[in-house]
Design a protein that fits this description.
about 180 residues; alpha+beta; eight-stranded antiparallel beta barrel; about 20% helix; about 40% strand; globular
Length: about 180
């Protein structure tokens, strides 16, 4: 796929992602609640993607990470990185995130392309900021994140139970391999 075709694909996917939230009139799956009392500074840094719902941006990626850093304008710089095992090379996407309200509530929105934002909802977070469950605007987007490349079975079970309770199809989860550094 040439650079122009890839840009068009990203634009269409971004518009569909952003449009889905608008069409539904809400910014998270029905029944979901976001984390309150969030310490933005503790959430920053690198997170390893343990599992996800697959979609165009992350198709064929392993070893995926998301790194969050505070920008000078108060927004959050987002760098997503992963290894495309089909193409045999690393890929990286940069974005910006902002809180939809108070910065101590886990309701954010992320933009990878221009003025189009998609929901990023932290719906579970352990007290030590080691593990997080993040939902998009619907049951089409879900991520399990960890500060390391694995997650304890009890946390995994808890997060999967939360997701299932919200209507996620757990058989659609992609479990991410982390074998490269």
């Amino acid at each position: 796929m040439n650079k122009y075709a890839r840009l068009i694909t990203i634009l269409v996917a971004t518009l569909a992602f952003a449009g889905n939230a608008t069409a539904q009139g809400r910014d998270m799956p029905e029944g979901a609640t976001v984390v309150e009392g969030l310490d933005k500074g503790r959430y920053l840094g690198t997170w390893y993607e343990i599992a996800r719902y697959d979609f165009a941006f992350e198709k064929n990626l392993s070893d995926t990470t998301a790194t969050y850093a505070l920008r000078d304008d108060g927004k959050i710089a987002v760098t997503n990185r992963g290894y495309n095992y089909v193409k045999g090379k690393w890929t990286e996407a940069r974005a910006k995130a902002r809180f939809r309200g108070s910065d101590d509530v886990g309701a954010l929105e992320v933009s990878f392309f221009g003025p189009f934002y998609a929901a990023y909802n932290i719906i579970a977070l352990d007290p030590e900021y080691r593990y997080a469950l993040v939902a998009g605007d619907s049951t089409k987007y879900l991520w399990i994140l960890s500060r390391t490349t694995d997650i304890p079975d009890d946390v995994k079970a808890e997060y999967l139970a939360i997701a299932e309770g919200l209507g996620y199809d757990l058989t659609a989860m992609v479990w991410v391999e982390h074998t490269r550094h």
